[in-house]
Amino acid sequence: MVSSFKKALKSGKFVVTSEVAPPKGTNLEKMIHHIELLKDKVDAMNVTDHQSSVMRFPSLGGALLVKEMGGEPILQMTCRDRNRMALQADLFFAASRGINNVLCLTGDSVILGDHKEAKGVFDLDSSQLLAAIRRLEKGKDLGGNDVDGSISFCAGAIVTPEANPLEPQLIKFEKKIEAGAEFIQTQAVYDLDNFKQFMDYARQFPVKILAGIILLTSAPMARFMNKNVAGVNVPQELIEEMASAPKGRAIEKGVEIAGRMIKRVREEKMCDGVHIMAIGKEELVPDIMDICATMICCSKGKAL
Amino acid sequence: MIRSITQQKPEEEIDQLLNGLGRVFMIGCGTCATLTHTGGEPEVKAMKENLSGKGKLVTGEMVLPVACDNLTAEALKEHGAQIGQSDVLLIMTCAFGVQTIARQLEKMVVPALDTLFIGKETGLGRFDEICTQCGTCILGETGGICPVTSCHKGLVNGPCGGTSNGKCEIDSEKDCAWTLIYNRLKELNRLDAMRKLQKPRNHQGEPSPGKFKLSA
User: Fold this and answer.
1) What is the pLDDT of residues A84-124, one digit of tens each?
2) What is the share, in percent, of chain B residues with pLDDT greater than 70?
3) Which end of chain A is more exposed for a tag (fewer CB within 10 A), N or C?
4) pLDDT bracket for residue A302 (50, 70, 90)
């Protein structure tokens, strides 16, 4: 069955995705709250897979929860914790439960997370996981054996448009598309002029691109990302704008900046949509979308 | 020359391993462990003083020329009496040495070192892991730089998203293997090799524990 997310990508509309993060433990309350808030507002929501290598409730369980609540999940799958057998098995399960969107990631190093002594697997990488999905769809597993039952996924991957050096990342990006990526969610972009240059290049490939928008919550948070998150570069003027917010109101400023960026991405038709990452503040995603809609309304008289 | 690179275990761990064992015979190695200053003459001497200070009786010590060599059996015989008086052998060699010695003697062995990797001295006092002996060499497609060893994740299709300014996400002192490979292939005008989608690695190269017999 074609997923509603895939239909949205094909429709040519401006696609909006967001994220929900499974909890550390079995208390799903907050996640359920976020799914409730987002399920009718976004085209799909990613369910993160032990984000930053911090062990949590599984993304597969989270994606199933989204599905059961009537939302459209994008199952994030990293290659860090499972070998090719476990990854394929989880894909079987996902397909059997109508979870038909997968974002394929190599995954952060175990050392960056909260189980530093664990073994990082990396039996496959992101491009090989994409290729594995396409192979399963043709009825064969990675061992060359026949697979019983049909499988069909809308499969995607990520790219870091501000990586330095950039060309090795672009070579990998092209390999991901060759391996079968239909959509790409980018690492956070803040300098939209740079992003336009990336899109001038990326447009030549048959893939839908959603620009990554990470909500800024404070000036120190922006500086922290610049220092510690590979390929994220918040320009100085945005940091100053965040710092200029009245005490205790930085988040409102961050919401405004995110809304403004989405508006520009959309109005200038830079790419096919956005992927909003609110990192723990998922309840603010509707605010970001509302403020963006208001801005567009004011300038053009139409709603998002 | 390739070397077995070692690092001394934390003192508390050594103390724990020697707990209740009063008489210790100590063995160092004149090759790799001497080069890395973990099991040569000075380190064995320092360890001896340390142990004596903790009330252990060191029945004797020796630094084997090459602990992993078969001649080790003969060298150990020369110290048979002192070894015989000991409760335990504290061995300041790599794990190849520890296992070679353990096969020769009816004694419990305690390694004083952790064996980190097989590597090369690439600068004064600097040792780098070069090859993990995976059994399925892909150097022909990477400009002679091994990503299986040099990429923290052993990736064969290019860099992950964690690389930053040519460095690895786990350590800003570690070069990103795929940036090195990219630079090399670009220099050689062979970036096409990097564009090839590599299949998942064959981890059956030689199933562990490796065994190999030359055919006649």
Assistant:
1) 999 999 999 999 999 999 999 999 999 999 999 999 999 99
2) 100
3) N
4) very low
B44-102 pLDDT, tens digit each: 999 999 999 999 999 999 999 999 999 999 999 999 999 999 999 999 999 999 999 99
* CA distances for B7 relative to A12, A148, B17, angstroms: 59, 51, 16
Q: What are the residues of chain A with a beta carbon less than 8 Å away from any beta carbon of chain B? A: 84, 105-106, 108-109, 111-112, 120, 122-128, 131-132, 142, 158, 160, 163-165, 167-169, 171-172, 174-175, 178-179, 187, 230-231
Question: B151 is written with which tokens?
Answer: 């990429």
Q: Which of A109, A230, A231 sits opposite B153 (nearest CB)?
A: A109
Query: Phi, psi at residue A140, to the nearest 5°?
Result: -130, 140
Q: What is residue A91's predicted lDDT score, i.e. its pLDDT?
A: 98
Query: Distances in Å between the alpha carbon of A132 and those of A128, A200, B100, B115, B148?
Result: 6, 29, 44, 36, 20
Q: Judge whether B138 is closer than 8 Å to chain A, CB to CB.
A: no
CB B91 within 8 A of CB B97: yes
> Structure tokens of A32?
């359920």
Give the span between the Cα atoms of B153 and A109, in whole angstroms.
7
CA of B79 vs chain A CAs: smallest distance (Å): 40
Q: For residues A161 and B145, what is the distance between their CA atoms, to the nearest angstrom?
A: 26
Q: For residue A112, what are the contacts with CB-CB under 8 A and spacing of at least 6? A: A52, A53, B162, B169, B170
